[in-house]
Design brief:
Layout: E1 6-10, H1 14-25, E2 30-34, H2 37-46, E3 51-55, H3 63-73, E4 78-83, H4 88-96, E5 101-104, H5 110-123, H6 128-146, H7 154-167, E6 173-176, H8 183-193, E7 201-205, H9 211-219, E8 220-221, E9 233-234, H10 236-239, E10 244-248, H11 255-267, E11 269-270, E12 279-280, E13 284-289, H12 293-298, H13 304-310, E14 313-316, H14 327-340, E15 348-349, H15 351-359, H16 365-379, E16 384-385, H17 392-395, H18 417-427, H19 430-433, H20 440-460, H21 471-485, H22 490-497, H23 501-519
Parallel strand pairs: 1-2, 1-3, 3-4, 4-5, 6-13, 6-14, 7-10, 10-13, 15-16
Antiparallel strand pairs: 8-9, 11-12
Length: about 525
């Protein structure tokens, strides 16, 4: 960038404008200072700027609106937002709207500001492809180390750029995304890009442990605090001191655990279970959830004050179906990974098989894609994965169930044509997989109606009907249905059943013990 680069500074504090003028003009840059939003608007319409440094809080204009106007009038101008700590959430929103980065007031490190402006000048005026290369060069090696495969989608590239910039800010982060999108991998990337990268990164799944065990896991316990506590044990908040704590499925934490988490985030102190002495900790918290925490706040199942403590910066991981252009990159990466892990040969994927994978909706996201690749590679007896090597779940959309009567005589079920048709439906792996999402609830309803009508006809004809389920069997079935409905979310399942979360855990253990006894 030429030393005659033009820089616009917008801040209602005269001292800030004077500071930037002195700092930048001695480097040969041409500086224009505006103290009001209207002055800035006039300036960007009269002159061309390479970088604009804009305060979020202006007396006559909203900083975000000014950012959008700068990017509209001069798309090549890079905007750096100035903000106080209390408006960090808004500053991150600015990055998502196109700001290059943000800096916090009061300024502490002048060299850091100079370096940031110099980097913004390198970006300024460049083509989008060049900007993407420069951006990826900053964080690409960190992403690779964290296990993130950088594809071609704009959404993922923008997400990683934002995550890289906020990683160095040392603020709490809330990651939202469906199951299997890679929330923990993104959390590891943020840790690796932060100044805490040489300290511990400790993940804990809040939905995998009962309340009493989760409390001990997080905060530790003193000897004799409860039955089985034979010695003192340090918790994760101690072990992660000066590092990063990743709280997965944060929406599963009980209200009492939420209270204790809030205290740590507010005071930086906690007490071990059974302890009396507060312990200091310096931990960055990254939380993740696949549920709507704002809805949980409205339903009073998640504390509003804790939500806002965690939601300083919110990142949304897009599902795989919204970034299908990344699928070929991911597929080839996982195949190369398999070859590098001793499969003995390099396996490719045929264009036909890739086309099917591009058409599939991937409800399990990247995790499901990995499993599909491993399964197809295991079934492949050559060096190329063909459509026949893919699971019925994936190919089902293209392989509709054949019409009745199309089966060969040897395969045709016995009985009347209607019964044969039902048997074909029951034994076809592809029938349900080939149905559209909107058709499945209709099928479920029809089966329920059919079951009821079959029982009525059997009763009228005097045929022996199946005995009714016992209370125990009905309870087991209700629990299983609630778990399926909630997709394994224990808190939601307990709420559906009208029982406490701990009660559901106890009943699940009883069911597991009963199943073991039956096997014996």
């Amino acid at each position: 960038m030429s030393l005659q680069a033009r820089i616009l500074v917008v801040d209602d504090e005269v001292e800030v404008g004077t500071f930037f003028r002195c700092l930048l003009e001695r480097k040969g840059y041409r500086v224009t200072v505006a103290t009001r939003g209207q002055e800035a608007r006039e300036a960007i319409n009269d002159q061309k700027f390479h970088v604009a440094v804009v305060d979020l809080k202006l007396p006559d204009f909203d900083g975000l609106s000014l950012l959008q106007e700068v990017k509209k009038v001069q798309p090549g101008c890079e905007v750096i937002i100035m903000t106080g700590y209390s408006t960090t959430r808004t500053a991150v929103r600015a990055i998502q709207l196109g700001a290059y980065d943000y800096i916090e007031k009061p300024f502490e490190d002048i060299s850091q500001i100079e370096a940031l402006i110099d980097k913004a000048l390198d970006f300024a005026g460049g083509a989008e492809e060049r900007k993407k290369r420069l951006s990826t060069a900053e964080w690409g090696h960190i992403a690779a180390r964290a296990g993130i495969i950088v594809g071609n989608s704009r959404a993922m590239n923008q997400l990683l750029s934002v995550a890289f910039k906020i990683a160095r800010k040392d603020v709490n982060v809330l990651i939202q995304g469906e199951t299997g999108t890679g929330k923990e991998v993104l959390a590891r990337f943020i840790h690796a890009a932060s100044h805490r990268s040489d300290r511990p990164f400790i993940p804990v799944n809040c939905g995998a442990l009962p309340e009493n065990l989760l409390e001990s896991e997080l905060f530790g316990h003193e000897k004799g605090a409860f039955t089985g506590a034979t010695g003192q044990r340090r918790g994760i908040f101690e072990l992660a001191n000066h590092g990063t704590l990743f709280l997965d499925e944060i929406g599963e934490a009980s209200l009492s655990i939420q209270v204790k988490l809030l205290r740590v985030l507010e005071t930086g102190e906690f007490m071990r279970v059974g302890g009396e002495k507060p312990i200091k900790t310096d931990v960055r918290v990254i939380a993740a959830t696949n549920v709507d925490l704002e809805q949980a706040v409205r339903e009073k199942s998640f504390r509003e004050d804790l939500f806002y403590r965690l939601d300083v910066v919110r990142l949304h991981l897009p599902p795989l179906r919204e970034r299908k252009e990344d699928i070929p990159v991911l597929v080839n990466h996982f195949l190369n990974e398999l070859a590098g892990h001793g499969t003995g040969q390099s396996i490719k994927i045929s264009p036909e098989a890739m086309k099917i994978m591009m058409q599939y909706s991937w409800p399990g996201n990247v995790r499901e894609l990995v499993n599909a690749i491993h399964q197809a590679a295991a079934l492949c007896d050559g060096t190329v994965i063909l459509p026949g090597h893919l699971s019925n779940r994936i190919t089902g959309a293209l392989n509709r169930f054949p019409k009745p009567g199309s089966a060969s005589p040897d395969d045709r079920p016995e009985g009347s044509p209607s019964l044969a048709q039902l048997q074909n439906l029951v034994h076809s792996d592809d029938f349900l997989a080939g149905l559209e999402d909107g058709e499945l609830p209709r099928v479920f309803h029809l089966l329920k109606v059919l079951e009821k009508r079959v029982l009525e006809v059997m009763s009228r004809r005097g045929l022996p009907c199946p005995p009714p389920a016992t209370i125990e069997e009905m309870e087991r079935e209700a629990i299983n249905q609630a778990l399926v409905y909630s997709r394994g979310n224990i808190t939601l399942a307990a709420r559906i059943l009208g029982i406490g979360r701990n009660t559901l855990y106890r009943k699940l253990k009883e069911m597991e013990a009963g199943a073991k006894n039956n096997r014996l």
